[in-house]
Amino acid sequence: MGAQLKKNALVVAGLLGVHLTLSFIMSLMARSPYMSGFHNGQGLWRFAGDSSRYHADALRLLELFHQGQVYEGLTRGRWWHTKWVALSYMLFGADPLSFAVINAIIWVMSIICVYKIVLHILPERRHVPMICAAMFGFWPSYLLHTTQLLKEPFFVFGVLLVVWGWTGLLAGHRRLSLVMYVVLGILLAYLNRAHSMLPLTGVSVIAVCLMGYRARGSLVYALVTMALVISLAAVHKTRFDDLNMEHLYHLTRTDASNQNHDKLSRWIDAKVYMLTAARFTFTLGYRGAKSNIDEHVTFRSLPDIIQYMPKALLVGYFAPFPAHWFERGATVGYIGRALAGFEMVGWYVLFIGSVSFFVQGTVPLRLRIWLLVYTISLVMISALMISNVGALYRMRYVYLLPMMIGGVEGWARCRVQKALW
């Protein structure tokens, strides 16, 4: 036991060292004349353009800390994670590289989450959990984004905690720690992306239903989890940032004489309105970008959303398409587009391998169903909300985890069957 703990500690230390080294190299390059068109010369890269806004907000909070207004500094950040950026600036200096330690810790914990998730799904497979964890953590675009000041690493970690908790409960484990993983994960995801509350609550309901049908031994833990999740959802308030609400009102309103005023219809209309608002926000943020897809599409009713769902699934899973791979990106140039193309080839291979996993795998059916519901629903919602391929590519990553696990296991099984022949 002591030897295993020592080995695990060495692995964690090694991963931290690798990430810190990469962050240092990326920061040095972003302060040099090398590839000057791709960074701001002050340590931040343009492929993570939001980092500049987060850096400015952190500097504002840092000023409050210096004035002794600690409470204000911890509560007035426009983004939840910028308070942690500001605290790292206060401890290590007002430089983006100061945040490298927190980024490295979150990255390593995310890799551990993936390892534990795969262990729940494939407990008898010795190497697949390690392969999936390493693949997830070292996926090039994700790894590079974790060296910047983005909130995505925190969001990804939160969602992974949710998946860790539910896969453990669906696998039949009865531990309160799994309950806490789900609750803390949803809270962390919500703090970074408020719109994630409803979809994550939805996949949690599906998990409870599956457990009631096939895994009743853990049902009590699932019900406790669901009660806590519903409590979080009850206090959920959707935030709209930088949104022209009057324009959206005229964009989504329908003839008042044809509107139903029952509660269900009003609730559906509100969700359609929120989805349109989110899509409009991304369209405004990336207006003029060459990588926008269907940027003029808006949703005025539920049938509009249903009609667009097949296209949303196609874009959600398979974009950027080959035609995008050889174009010049506005912030990433030809190099970034080529990297995306290389990664998409990898995803296509994993998608093919995952068919075997989901159709005829040895994993319990309830787990496979939940993983499919998780990936399909959340990828589709992301594609409905986001009209920019670059933003979608970054934000859907954690939702593709089941395809990565299924692809690795599916191809591994094919290799074993081929060897038996």
Provide the domain count.
Answer: 3
Query: What is the element string, with H for helices and E for strands?
Result: HHHHHHHHHHHHHHHHHHH
What percentage of residues falls in helices of 4 or more residues?
over 70%
Question: What sort of overall outline do the alpha carbons produce when their principal axes are compared?
Answer: globular
Radius of gyration: 22 Å
Kindly state the number of beta strands: 0
Can you tell me about this structure?
With 421 residues, the protein is an all-alpha fold. It has three domains: 119 residues, no CATH class; 88 residues; 176 residues, no CATH class. The chain is built from 19 helices and no strands. The longest helix has 28 residues. The protein is globular. It starts with a helix and ends with a helix.
